[in-house]
Write a structure and sequence with these properties.
Strand order of the largest sheet of chain A: 6-9-10-3-11-12
Structural class of chain B: alpha/beta
Strand content of chain A: 25-35%
CATH class of the domain at 2-90 and 163-239 in chain A: Alpha Beta
CATH topology of the domain at 2-90 and 163-239 in chain A: Rossmann fold
Number of helices of chain A: 7
Strand order of the largest sheet of chain B: 1-3-5-7-9-11
Helix content of chain B: 10-25%
Number of strands of chain B: 11
Radius of gyration of chain B: 17 Å
Largest sheet of chain B: 6 strands, parallel
CATH architecture of the domain at 2-90 and 163-239 in chain A: 3-Layer(aba) Sandwich
Shape of chain B: globular
Oligomer: heterodimer
Largest sheet of chain A: 6 strands, mixed
Structural class of chain A: alpha/beta
Distance between the termini of chain A: 28 Å
Shape of chain A: globular
Number of domains of chain B: 1
Number of strands of chain A: 12
Helix content of chain A: 25-40%
Largest interface: A-B, 28 and 22 residues
Strand content of chain B: over 45%
Radius of gyration of chain A: 18 Å
Chain lengths: 248, 192
């Protein structure tokens, strides 16, 4: 279980709290959605869970299976099963996609990954996410379109098989076909990995047509103000954040 | 077809002078060395790509001067250094286009990564006397981007391995490099 316990989070070296007492429990197999107006702390939450250097947890705790991860480095958190699909994946010139994923897989398994089986597995996975196989040999995210970057994040997910997946606006900038492909692959992953759980950060209910959530939460001013089921997301779509009854 | 040259310097102070008469790529790998390079582009319509990749442990200097002696000549310099210890590393990079050389392209990109608290300096100079020239320069001194390290580490790669991935891509910065010819330099990257 991933538990966020009364977390206060600020930008490192600043007193400005972005998250102000946020609590959330995500059990195995569950899908949670966080929605909220711009600048309310959704992406901050995603990065804070992953241990991003720009954010500091000033109060509260984040736990995986009841053990705090706050003192763990970013890579140690990833090895605990966390995987953040980023809103705008970083471009790294010169590091090939295959080199990156193979190194990550070797780090996860603790053994050197056989090149032949890796390439074979990758070709299959790339076909499933509808990415051209030559992208494996290109610099990481360099020259990739918005859709290709998001698909590449899903490719990483399929290779590394994490347990706690955070999708930070995976649907932004995706056309309808790409969104369908991305969601189809996530859905398949969740079906094959029953203990995996999903935290979706989004502005739009459209993604929820493909990935049915168990819970929808509204984040405002750094705190979850309202929780419900998918009907809450549809209410937001219809009424906007100002139109729904959210505790302030 | 380009002419391709490989230079590997290991703890040496060498000077190099070239008169370039055809399209040329020079891969220069330098381990803890000071170098002085002078290049003249002496034939019209030719290009030079110069990749200087440098691992530095002591106080060293790298000077390179490219002189466009003819019309429509093209130079691209990529100077990448890693200052491993707390030493001085200085780059002087001069691109020169005299008044008589028109329609030249004269570009340079310079970077030094400080792995510790070394003092690094880059002096990028473009001395252009002709109005019809396309010329750019850039210089960066600092550490590897924390954002890049975060991205790599977020997939379970530890900081040391993530840094090594960035180092390798930074110091072997062309897909065309024949790795068999620079095994000594690759071994040196492993030691950083």
């Amino acid at each position: 279980m991933l538990e966020i316990k009364n977390v206060y989070c600020s930008i490192t070296d600043s007193n400005l709290n972005i998250l102000k007492g946020l609590s959330l429990k995500i059990k195995e197999g569950e899908t949670h959605v966080i929605m909220g107006p711009n600048g309310t702390g959704k992406s901050t939450l995603a990065k804070a869970i992953m241990g991003h250097y720009k954010y500091s947890i000033t109060k509260g705790d984040i736990l995986i299976d009841k053990k705090s991860i706050l003192n763990l480095t970013v890579d140690e958190r990833a090895k605990k099963g966390l995987y953040l699909c980023m809103q705008d994946p970083t471009v790294i010139e010169g590091v090939s996609n295959s080199e990156f994923l193979r190194t990550a897989l070797s780090s996860k398994t603790g053994t050197k990954v056989n090149l032949y089986s890796f390439i074979t597995d990758m070709e299959k996975a790339m076909k499933e996410v509808e990415l051209d196989s030559n992208m494996l040999h290109r610099s990481l995210n360099m020259g990739f379109s918005g859709g290709e970057k998001k698909k590449n994040e899903i490719l990483g997910l399929k290779v590394l098989k994490p347990k706690y997946i955070i999708l930070d606006e995976i649907d932004s900038g995706l056309d309808v076909d790409s969104l369908r492909i991305v969601c189809k692959n996530i859905k398949q992953y969740m079906k094959e990995n029953k203990d995996a759980s999903l935290l979706i950060i989004t502005h739009y209910p459209r993604i929820l047509e493909y990935l049915k959530p168990d819970y929808v939460h509204i984040l405002k001013d750094g705190k979850i103000r309202k929780s419900g089921d998918i009907s809450l997301a549809l209410e937001v779509e219809k009424e906007g954040y100002t139109g729904i009854n959210v505790m302030s | 077809m380009n002419k391709i040259l490989y230079i590997i310097d290991d703890n040496s102070n060498k000077d190099y002078k070239y008169k370039i008469k055809e399209d040329t790529i020079i891969y220069h790998f330098s381990i803890n060395s000071s170098n002085n390079v002078e290049i003249d582009l002496v034939k019209e319509n030719i290009s030079l790509y110069y990749y200087y990749n440098n691992i530095n442990y002591d106080d060293n200097e790298f000077k390179i001067e490219v002189r466009h002696q003819k019309n429509n000549t093209h130079s691209e310099l990529y100077n990448h250094g890693v200052n491993v210890k707390n030493n001085k590393l200085t780059y002087y990079v001069n691109g020169i286009v005299p008044k008589d050389s028109a329609k030249c392209i004269c570009n340079q990109e310079n970077q030094i990564i400080n792995m510790n608290d070394g003092k690094s300096t880059i002096c990028p100079n473009l001395l252009i006397d002709n109005y019809d020239v396309d010329s750019n320069h850039g210089a960066y001194i600092g550490k590897f981007s924390e954002e890049k390290l975060f991205y790599l580490m977020s997939r379970g790669i530890n900081r040391e391995d993530a840094t090594r991935l960035l180092l390798t891509s930074y110091l072997i910065n062309s897909d065309s490099i024949d790795l068999n010819k620079i095994s000594k330099f690759i071994n040196e990257i492993e030691k950083i």
